[in-house]
Amino acid sequence: DNSSEFIPKCRTCRRQAREQSGEAAHHEGLSSDEELTPTEVDEFQKSKDNVLEDSRKIFEDVHADFCDIRKILLKFQEWKEKFPDSYCDAYISFCLPKLLNPLIRVQLISWNPLEQNFTELEEMPWFRAIEEFSDAENASESK
């Protein structure tokens, strides 16, 4: 296997090329294999913008009661309060994650925890809505 010999030779060649060109932006320990060219950065940004634009259109023809997590959870809370036996028989606690998954995923498309000014998951509206629903559900079960 010559792959172990190939890696140091590639690094040596790249280091020599940087030294000859006078490129000082490289930091030792960082791989230049992971550096993106301006063209790649532009293509990535365009692709990302297209995905974000498409994601905004996903629920545009859906009634607000069925694409807002808080409103959906309120309907389930009403169901539980009015018809507790039916609610339990339907195993709603097992169904909610699958039901809410697409709604949450759409909201997380643009979330990037590596950005400096990212929103913590706990601060997102969908997280708070689920937390409030869970608190209300736990309170009603303790009664």
From TrEMBL:
Q: Where is the composition biased (Basic and acidic residues)?
A: 16-30
GCF C-terminal domain mapped to chain residues: 70-132
Is Transmembrane helix a UniProt keyword of this protein?
A: no
**Subcellular location(s) per record:** Nucleus
- Give positions of region: Disordered: 16-38
**Keyword tags:** Nucleus
Give a yes or no for keyword Nucleus in this entry: yes
Which domain of life does this protein belong to?
A: Eukaryota
Give GO terms for biological process: mRNA splicing, via spliceosome
Cellular compartments per GO CC: nucleus
Could you tell me one molecular function GO term of this UniProt entry? Answer: DNA binding
* Homology family: Belongs to the GCF family.
The name of this protein is GCFC2 factor
